[in-house]
Amino acid sequence: MDFSLGEDLEELRSLAREIFTDHATPERLRAVETSGSRVDDKLWTDLGAAGLLAAPLSEEAGGAALGLAGLSVVLEEQGCRVAPVPLWPAVLGALTVDAHGSAEQRAALLPHAADGTSRLTLALEEFAPAEPGTPLTTAVPEGTGWRLTGIKAVVPSPAGAAHVLVAATTDAGTGLFLVRRDAPGTSWTPAETTTYDLSAHLDLDGTPAEAVGAPGSGVLEWVVDRARTALAAVQLGVAQGAVRYAADHLGAREQFGRPLATFQAVQHQLADCVIEIDAMRVTLWQAVTALVDGQDTEQAVLVAKWWAGEGGLNVVHRVQHVHGGIGVDTDYPVHRHFLWGKQLATTLGGAAGDLCRLGDLLADKAVAS
Fold first, then answer.
1. Cβ contacts of 335 within 8 Å, gap of 6 or more
2. Secondary structure (DSSP) of 52-97
3. Which of 178, 198, 337, 347 is most buried per CB count within 10 Å?
4. Which domains does the chain have, with CATH numbers?
């Protein structure tokens, strides 16, 4: 299968690479990590001004209709430079409203999401044993709206978001609900993550909400599949950025009068990294293609998510290992790739859970055939 990018996506990649390279310098990253928001607001503004936040959205919403493929390209470039902006939850939230929201929701939210002046975030995770696709948070109808009750875990970058898309269960099935960040009945508990992002746990106590699409219509499954794929795109970039640091370090550092890069044991470590990155790239674009075409989506998404969790974590571990002591020195930038790789590998469930889901899916298919 040919996963080469078309002209529009290549141009989008080049623009994203240029902006992230200019902004996400080690000095800038260090400053953002000690800031109050932990978000590079200047980078976010520039991404909006350049049209990168809008590019995945439909033309009616002011975008270029590049969809999940466009978002994946930008996320990969973000991951390469571990740029601290809440790109995947904000743009995926906007894509969800674009695809499933009412005319009123689209008109109210998408113009600001497209230019970056306001943003959404996603509340998909809960504490175990809840799964993203089967939330314990409940939604009950009240008049033309809904009331939500439950706890959502590790909501990414809520401080700068005006609205949250919350996964919940109703009598008609699962659904996705739009909640104002400061709506009555909401309570936030700060939760700093491995990547320095200021996430928070969200308590909902009869919180008023609007449904995005009809509960039970598959909207939650739609967004969870795309969230897993988006995370795989970020992790692919993180792994590639980590290996770039390793190659530069090993080429410059000498031992016994020879560059470390010429030692066979080190070459084997990086060769394994390249193999796993290639697998991550192929499975990512297989998942994107399946979601666009609507065929075998769950299997393709779980395979991509598993490779991102397992392969991505392997890569950042090896890269840190071949750096020796400076790999864990927070004054040396490669440690950020390790921290991001660890965090991404467990977001929306770890590799072991993804493998169990994939096994159950394949077993069900075998029984059905």
1. 320, 327, 328, 329
2. TTTTTS-GGGTS---HHHHHHHHHHHHHHTT--S-HHHHHHHHHHH
3. 337
4. 7-118 (1.10.540.10), 122-211 (2.40.110.10), 219-368 (1.20.140.10)
